[in-house]
What does this fold into?
Amino acid sequence: MTGSFCTFEKVFVQLEKLGDKFENIYGIMSAAASSTDSRFGAAEDNVARLTSIVGKPVITTISQAEPIGPKKLLDVLIVAPCTGNTLGKLASGITDSSVTMACKSHMRNGRPLVLAIATNDGLSGSAESIGRLLNRKNIYFVPFGQDDPMGKPTSLIADFSRLEDTVRAAVEGRQIQPLII
It folds into this structure.
C-alpha cells in the first residue's frame, strides 16, 4: 500500500476478499502509508487493519522487504493503491521505499507485479511512467479510468473490484482487458 489514503477503504475490502481465497498474504506499506495520519484515518489504525487482514506484521522498511525476492516469498505482488510517486519510481528503477524494494526484489524472479493505480496526475505528470510500465514484462495493471473527469481531469483510479480478476490473469501471464475503462 502506498499513500493514496482516500482509496484505503476500497483496498482493505478487496484484501479481505483475497484473504478468504488465498493462503498466505503479506502486507507491505510505504513509510507514508504506514506513518501518516490523514482525514481518511489514523496511520496506526491502517497498519492495525492490514495486520489483521494478513495475520502477520506489516512490512514497512526496505530491509524487511529485501528478502522477498531471494526467498521467493510471493507468487504475485500487488501494489494497491499505487500512487503516481510510486509509478515514477518503478518506471525509473528507484528503490528507496519498502514498496519499491519489494517490487524490485520480487521481479528479479520474473514473477508478476500487479499495479492498482490511484493518482491525481495519471493523465499528466504520471502518464509517461504508466506508458513505460505498460511496456515492461511481468507488470500488469488493474483496469483503470478517470474518477472525476470534470473536477479532476487528469486523475486516474483503478477499479479495485477487478483486483482478483487481474491477479488471476497476471499469474497466467496476461493483462486483463479492457485495460482502460
The helical segments are 8-21, 31-35, 43-54, 62-65, 84-92, 98-107, 127-134, 163-171. The chain has one domain: 5-171. Residues 5-171 form a domain with the Rossmann fold fold (CATH 3.40.50.1950). The mean pLDDT is 96.
